[in-house]
TrEMBL record:
InterPro entries: Zn2Cys6_DnaBD. It comes from the Eukaryota. One of its GO terms (molecular function) is DNA-binding transcription factor activity, RNA polymerase II-specific. Keywords: Nucleus, Transcription, Transcription regulation. The keyword Nucleus applies. CDD domains: GAL4 (cd00067). This is Zn(2)-C6 fungal-type domain-containing protein.
Length: 257
């Protein structure tokens, strides 16, 4: 293009024979003729034909041509088989989001709860972890409503057990956390009341999760007649759910231990 083609003026070489010396300060835009422009010949100087790629985009005319059809490759419009066409740019489908496996998500939740119990976090962090865990388990149980199995139920029971243990640790009288509202520190009986109220609310939510887990045991996919081992797993899961209900009832109605 003429607008992007530049010729740079240079002075003739001196008598030392070192060749042409091109000066940046003397550069001017020429007419774009490869055999030399009229202005350079009139000044008696030599110009060098140089093409600048600044502002040039390869394939602009191809993209704006009359045969342009979106961003689809030309190989995709041909009659040949796109699988064996060597010039095809890409035959892969559009990227799709793949949700992580629910069992793996629950296992990561179990690891988080186990670490939190050993770390003894503050009360506000305990509440945040408990709410996130309950929400995730409710989502998992919803996904497993039509394809539940004994292994799924066992993994969820382990997570529920750790979540209840985390609440019990926070509600223990000997390790009551410090409660602050800004610069105000709540101590004594008022602190016990605040902790009891917060733990009670979380325990009530976990009672709903346990109840949903217990109702889902009847939908476990056991093909054919359940074996003795499968029946034993169902009895163990029922016992766990009853134990969870007893422990959560102590947090809801019994208050701080």
């Amino acid at each position: 293009m003429a607008a992007t083609q530049q010729r740079y003026l240079s002075s003739q070489s001196d008598q030392t024979g070192q060749g042409l010396a091109y000066s940046v300060d003397d550069q001017v835009k020429c007419s774009g003729e490869k055999n030399g422009c009229r202005r350079c010949r009139a000044l008696g100087t030599t110009c060098r034909y140089n093409i600048s790629m600044v502002g040039r985009v390869p394939g602009v005319r191809q993209r704006h041509g009359k045969n342009h059809d979106g961003d689809r490759p030309e190989a995709g419009l041909a009659d040949e088989d796109p699988i064996i066409t060597p010039s095809l740019a890409c035959v892969a489908p559009f990227p799709t989001y793949l949700a992580p496996d629910s069992s793996l998500a629950v296992c990561r939740l179990i690891e988080l709860l186990d670490v939190s119990i050993r770390r003894s976090p503050p009360l506000d962090e305990v509440m945040r972890i408990s709410r996130a865990a309950a929400t995730q388990l409710e989502t998992v149980l919803t996904d497993w409503v039509s394809s539940s199995s004994a292994s799924h139920e066992c993994v969820c029971c382990v997570a529920v057990n750790l979540a209840i243990s985390l609440l019990e640790t926070s509600a223990t009288d000997s390790v009551l956390p410090i409660v602050r509202f800004g610069t105000l520190t709540v101590e004594g009986e008022a602190r016990r009341s605040v902790v009891q109220t917060m733990v009670r609310g979380e325990a009530q939510r976990w009672l709903e999760v346990v109840d949903r887990l217990q109702r889902g045991q009847g939908t476990m996919s056991l093909p054919g007649v359940p074996s003795v081992g499968e029946q034993s797993v169902v009895r163990v899961l029922s016992f766990w759910c009853e134990e969870f209900g007893r422990r959560l009832g102590g947090l809801v109605y019994g208050g701080v231990y």
